[in-house]
Amino acid sequence: MAACLLLSTGGAGNAAGANMITGGLTSQPIGHYEFCRAYPSECSIRSADAGPSRLTTRLWKRINTVNASVNRAVEPMNDFDIYGKDEVWTYPGAMGDCEDYVLEKRRELARAGIPLSNLLITVVRKPDGEGHAVLTVRTDRGDYILDNLSDHVRLWSETGYRFLKRQSSTDTGRWVSLRTGDSSAVASVR
After folding, report:
1. How far apart, in Å, are the Cα atoms of 22 and each of 36, 51, 123?
2. With contact defined as beta carbons under 8 Å apart, do 82 and 88 qualify?
3. Alpha-helical segments (H) within 84-186
4. In 10 A of CB 111, how many CB atoms?
5. In 1, 3, 71, 128, which residue has its Cα 20 to 30 A from 90's Cα atom?
């Protein structure tokens, strides 16, 4: 099944719009800023962008497995209910909210050998207007989204989200705007 899905994404991945178009540097979400203060080594990684990862059947299976397993392992709960305050970005225990899922998926996929330059925390706006964080996996067939709201990994353009900003592919502590972004919609360090 995964091989069939991978083959069926081949056309979409080669179509215009399969990869996000980034703009210049933009403000860092406040939660990420605080995460970087708590985990400085996570936010000081600078690397040359070697380009998107090659999407093989093995990589496709790994991405889908990690997305579904983290979604099952973590109970969704907002930061205020867990910590008594908003916007706490951290690795989840038994509970977490969207960015906590993203951090865990990113960590697991990095351990599997995917370069951090292709595992990018991304801020979006859901169709209902609420802010949300997802993980973008950059591949040669397009940018795929891992989301705690779905076990289905999709091309970014097929999610129904409005993409605002994401981590830079060359510096884990920097963020870049996305072509359709609206920076006023996300809490940021100014």
Report:
1. 22, 14, 13
2. yes
3. 98-111
4. 9
5. 128
Distances, alpha carbon 167 to alpha carbons 3, 51, 73, 120, in Å = 29, 15, 25, 5
48, with CB counted inside 10 A (0-12, 13-18, 19+), is exposed
Continuous H helices in the chain = 2-14, 30-38, 57-73, 79-83, 98-111
For 187, list phi and psi in degrees, rounded to 5.
-60, 130
Length of the chain equals: 190
Which amino acid, residue 97?
D
Structural domains in the chain plus CATH codes:
2-6+23-185 (3.10.620.30)
pLDDT tens string for the chain (190 positions)? 444 444 444 434 444 569 999 999 999 999 999 999 999 999 999 988 889 999 999 999 999 999 999 999 999 999 999 999 999 999 999 999 999 999 999 999 999 999 999 999 999 999 999 999 999 999 999 999 999 999 999 999 999 999 999 999 999 999 999 986 444 444 433 3
User: What's the whole-model pTM score?
Assistant: 0.88
Q: How many CB atoms lie within 10 A of CB 31?
A: 24
The identity of residue 72, as a single letter, is R
